[in-house]
Write a structure and sequence with these properties.
The chain has 84 residues and is mostly helical. The chain is built from 4 helices and no strands. It has helices spanning 2-35, 38-54, 59-71, 76-80.
Amino acid sequence: MAGVFATQSILGFGQAIVKTRSEIQGLEVAFGTLLGSKSKADELMGQIKTYASSTPMQMNDLADGAKTLLGFNIEAEKIGRAHV
């Protein structure tokens, strides 16, 4: 019985990893579209990941805020350094 629960836990963990990676790829595509440049999108995502890892804020919340600011024509450079 313990083996069944262990297997289910491992499968659940694997599914969570796949879901998270899928969300990150979606954010990368969205930023690439909004910024018109993959390199700018990668740079902004890196800044968001760094900020999320050093604060209690969640990456998805930070990314949503960044997308909103980009929608209001705030430059990515200002968004990326807003946390400094």
